Amino acid sequence: MRKVPMTVAGAERLRAELNELKTERRPRIIQAIAEARAHGDLKENAEYHAAREQQSFCEGRINEIEGKLADAEVIDIKAIPSTGRVIFGTTVTLVNLETDKKVVYQIVGEDEADVKAGRISVGSPIARAIMGKEVGEEIVVKAPAGDIDYEIEAVEHL
């Protein structure tokens, strides 16, 4: 199995969700199933069936998170010396050469990506275009609306 890159913050978020599922949601669901069973006939018991469905989703998510964490290669960007080169985990400031508009993205793992929060997947077109490049280099991102020319203004290890 190939390791999947993940930032320290991404791994911490998954561990926190896993802890919440195991220590809070799972016990609540087990309690709801026990209460629904106490009401008698399970065939016609909507609360029982709803609780069992919640249990199935919860256990599925627990398994999914445990699998992701097992396959993760957690990369602490702060521990890597800054070279000015774009690598996984760096935060990059790009300047659109046509509009002078700046955008800031952190390059993260697939599961951590959230464009609105400024986190783009390492497999995204922008990340693929800037990986390995350095401050001052110009790059072209192939976007659905057409090619966009950027200059890399800053690369930070935050």
Brief summary:
The chain is of the alpha/beta class and about 160 residues long. The chain has three helices and seven strands.
Cα shape: elongated
- What is the helix fraction of residues, given as a range? 25-40%
Q: What does the largest sheet look like?
A: 5 strands, mixed
CATH class of the largest domain: Alpha Beta
DSSP E strands, number: 7
Structural class: alpha/beta
The neighbouring-strand order within the major sheet is 5-4-3-7-6
CATH-assigned homologous superfamily of the largest domain: Transcription elongation factor, GreA/GreB, C-terminal domain
Radius of gyration: 22 Å
**Low-confidence runs:** none
Keywords:
Helix Hairpins, 158 residues, two-stranded parallel ribbon, alpha/beta, Chitinase A, domain 3, 3 helices
Write the layout of secondary structure elements.
Elements: E1 4-7, H1 8-38, H2 46-71, E2 72-75, E3 91-96, E4 102-108, E5 119-121, H3 125-130, E6 138-143, E7 146-156
Parallel strand pairs: 1-2, 4-5
Antiparallel strand pairs: 3-4, 3-7, 6-7
Helix pairs in contact: 1-2
Plain-language structure description:
The chain has 158 residues and is of the alpha/beta class. It has 3 helices and 7 strands, in the order E-H-H-E-E-E-E-H-E-E. It has helices spanning 8-38, 46-71, 125-130; strands spanning 4-7, 72-75, 91-96, 102-108, 119-121, 138-143, 146-156. The chain is elongated, with a radius of gyration of 22 Å. It starts with a strand and ends with a strand. The model has no long low-confidence stretch (mean pLDDT 93).
